[in-house]
Amino acid sequence: MYYTHDYLTARGMASQERAWLEPRPSPREVECAYCATLLDKDDAHWDGIHGPYCDDCWEEMNWG
């Protein structure tokens, strides 16, 4: 019982450390809603309902 708790606690701590150590994106950058790549706000495609999309994901969604 305690082994599982220790394992999950260690994994949670590792993810918190990673989140703390990774640099925050600049205010001009947004994350693609489909593939999670960072791109500039002006370069993103917006569909009005969901978040921004990169060029590749936008073409994939609209033209298959």
Describe the fold and architecture.
The model has no long low-confidence stretch (mean pLDDT 75). The protein has helices spanning 2-21, 55-63, and strands at 29-31, 38-40, 45-46, 52-53. Strand 3 and strand 4 form a beta hairpin. It is built from 2 helices and 4 strands; from the N terminus they run H-E-E-E-E-H. The chain is α+β, with helices and mostly antiparallel strands. The radius of gyration is 17 Å and the shape is elongated. The strands form 2 sheets. The chain has a two-stranded antiparallel sheet with strand order 1-2. The protein is 45% helix and 16% strand.
Roughly how many Å is the radius of gyration? 17 Å
Q: Strand sequence of the main sheet, in spatial order?
A: 1-2
Number of strands: 4
Major sheet characteristics: 2 strands, antiparallel
Uncertain runs with pLDDT below 50, 5 residues or more? none
Name the average pLDDT.
75
What structural category characterises the helix and strand content? alpha+beta
Which oligomeric state applies?
single chain
Ends distance: 48 Å
Beta-strand portion reads 15-25%
SSE run = HEEEEH
Number of DSSP helical runs: 2
Helix content: 40-55%
What is the molecular shape? elongated
